[in-house]
Specification:
CATH architecture of the largest domain: 3-Layer(aba) Sandwich
Shape: globular
Structural class: alpha/beta
Number of helices: 13
Helix content: 25-40%
Number of strands: 16
CATH topology of the largest domain: Aspartate Aminotransferase, domain 2
Strand content: 15-25%
Number of domains: 2
CATH class of the largest domain: Alpha Beta
Mean pLDDT: 94
Radius of gyration: 22 Å
Low-confidence stretches: none
Distance between the termini: 45 Å
Bound molecules: 4'-deoxy-4'-aminopyridoxal-5'-phosphate
Largest sheet: 7 strands, mixed
């Protein structure tokens, strides 16, 4: 049972003593004091299904017994060495982690957050290539450090600092749903939903977006040279955006031929999340030069990493690179346990099976509710885009999305929200989710949609379709 300070006291402390820009979800924010696997518990003992996993972070389950055991065992032996002395865990962990990568991606640097990992990748790319300019997509999120804030392309997450955009270019987002070309058939998805495009044998939207990228090289970049291009394998914060088939493979080749490195940001898509593969980039059939990872790597423990080739890693030889906590004995013990659990509990396979089951259920829901404009994703990385006009794909406005989202919470399911307009329900639950949990989520979502639609005027035509 909960034994902490009262709800009112917590709200007051938050208001007076915590940074005012701390993000709080929901009109009546939740106090969560305990978690077990895919479940969270509030101070009044209510149980919630965690469909957001602490923003994709809780990969194997809250307080997974095996991870807890590894953490407690290591914590009674040694917490910290600052890596100025060698300890066995970081070595054991490095070996296990790089074994998960194809090609020559065999050198790892441990840090503590996704922003730090992407900072490091930017530094590596610039030092290795001798070039300055770095490309990322409009709508991308790569972090909030002063360096990565520039890569990130949502104004919500950017401060107007001098130099934030220095050497950074945001290229057209190859988004087949909200972008100007494409449809659901452009994407690599186990379930096709109703918004099909006109492409026949191959993806014309992919071609059109690729031409835009080529033009950036031809017309925007001095001498056409870049240090790197960053891409998430499925854009997370941007609204679970899946790029057209073949686009990233061609983009990576183009970047390489112009002297740059390709960086796969696997902060959301790594560690089996997308089901078919362990890494999201594998679905796009290309080999990045640098891979950054965080969140799911530590199941909630602060841990992140940059993996690259030994040749690229050697580019930082000019100075020392120091990180007090990166790859600490505690972090490494947790990271190892997470890898074990993903394997032992068959979580990558589970992500594929349960995620596909969810996509099918959502596609059915989409047939019933025009307010669901798009359903997309892979494995347990799924987005449900809510619209007020499904032909024009007009994003449902915030008050309406918030109403639906809050009802889901009141009925016991916590979704996230993403996309430029915050109108995409984000589903990134712990990978131990079951089909029963999906049935429950679908029931809750359809109940919340009906409740919302019934509040709207009768003239509003995006109601439930007659069945
Ligand atoms: N990259 C991606 C794709 C992310 O989603 C995030 C966090 N939402 C980051 C990087 C930054 O990670 P962190 O918050 O750990 O700095």
């Amino acid at each position: 049972a909960y034994a902490g300070p009262s709800y009112e006291r917590i709200l007051e402390t938050r208001r007076t003593h915590l940074t005012p820009n701390l993000l709080a979800h929901f009109k009546k924010p939740l106090v969560i004091h305990a978690g077990h696997m895919q479940w969270l518990f509030d101070h009044e003992g209510r149980r919630y299904l965690d469909m957001f996993g602490g923003i994709v972070t809780v990969s194997v389950g809250h307080c997974h017994p095996k991870v807890n055991e590894a953490l407690s065992e290591q914590s009674s032996k040694l917490w910290h060495t600052t890596n100025i002395y060698m300890h066995p865990k970081i070595h054991e962990y490095a070996e296990r982690l790089v074994a998960k990568f194809p090609g020559n991606l065999k050198s790892v640097c441990f840090v503590n957050s996704g922003s730090e990992a992407n900072d490091m990748a930017m530094l590596l790319a610039r030092m290795h290539t001798g070039n300055q300019d770095i490309l990322s997509f409009r709508n991308a999120y790569h972090g909030m450090s002063p360096y990565t804030m520039g890569l990130t392309a949502h104004s919500t997450w950017r401060f107007p600092l001098p130099g934030v955009n220095n050497g950074l270019i945001h290229v057209m987002n190859p988004d087949p749903y909200q972008g100007i070309w494409g449809g659901s058939a452009c994407r690599d998805s186990p379930v096709q939903t109703k918004r099909e495009c006109q492409c026949q044998d191959y993806c014309q939207a992919g071609d059109a977006y690729y031409t835009q990228l080529e033009e950036t090289f031809k017309f925007s970049l001095p001498r056409g040279k870049v240090a790197a291009m960053f891409a998430e394998s499925i854009q997370g914060v941007g609204g679970t955006v899946q790029f057209p088939k073949g686009y990233l493979k061609r983009a990576a080749a183009l970047v390489k031929s112009n002297g740059g490195l390709f960086v796969a940001d696997e902060v959301q898509t790594g560690f089996g999340r997308t089901g078919e593969h362990f890494w999201g980039f594998e679905s796009h059939d290309y080999l990045p030069d640098i891979v950054t990872m965080a969140k799911g790597i530590g199941n909630g423990f602060p841990l992140a990493a940059v993996v690259t080739t030994p040749e690229i890693a050697a580019s930082l030889g000019e100075a020392l690179h120091f990180n007090t906590y990166g790859g600490s004995p505690l972090a490494s013990a947790v990271g190892l346990a997470v890898l074990d659990v993903i394997e032992e509990d068959g979580l990558q396979r589970n992500s594929l099976d349960v995620g596909t089951y969810f996509l099918k259920g959502l596609a059915e829901l989409q047939q019933r509710f025009e307010i669901i404009g798009d359903v997309r994703g892979k494995g347990l990385m799924i987005g449900v885009e809510l619209v007020s006009d499904h032909v024009k794909r007009t994003p449902l406005s915030s008050p309406h999305v918030l109403d639906i989202w809050e009802t889901c919470k009141d009925l016991g399911v916590l979704f996230g929200r993403g996309g430029l307009h915050g109108n995409v329900l984000s589903c990134r639950p712990p990978l131990c989710l079951t089909n029963d949990n999906i049935d429950f989520s679908l029931d809750v979502l359809s109940t919340a949609l009906i409740k919302h639609i019934n509040k709207r005027p009768r003239s509003w035509r995006y109601g439930q379709k007659a069945s």
